[in-house]
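User: Hi! I'm working on a homework problem where we have to compare a predicted structure to a textbook description. Could you give me the structure for the chain below?
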Amino acid sequence: MIDHIGLRVADYPKAKAFYQAALAPLGYTLLMEFGPEHGIDYQGAGLGADGKPDFWIGKGSANGPVHVAFVARNRAMVDSFFQAAIVAGGRDNGKPGIRAHYHPNYYGAFVIDPEGNNVEAVCHR
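Assistant: Happy to help. Predicted C-alpha cells:
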C-alpha cells in the first residue's frame, strides 16, 4: 500500500495555492508544511484528508525525481526494505530510523532507485 507520494514543483507558492484549491472539493486541506527552519533541506507541503498528509509537493526542479513511500506494518519491515533495496542497486538516502520532525513514531528508510527516484518505506507505529 502506498503511504504518500511527493512531486517536485518549480514555483512552490503557486503550486501550493493551486493544489489547495484543486483538491479542496476532494476534502484535502493543507495539513503540514516544512522548510529549512525545521532543520531539513526541504521546503514542502503535505495535503490530505482525514488528518493524513498523503500528497506532498516540494520545491525543486519540476522535472526532478518523484518521491513515493510504502507502508510497512512494523519497523523490521522498514529495515528489511532498506537492506533489500541496497542489495538490488539502490543508494542510501537515509538509513532506517526515527524521523521525529514528522512525528514521534515516524520510522522510515530512504533509497534512491536506479532512475534517481526517492523510495521510502515507513512505519507509523
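For your comparison, note the following. The chain has two domains: 2-59, 67-123. Residues 28 and 53 are 9 Å apart (CA to CA). Good luck with the assignment!
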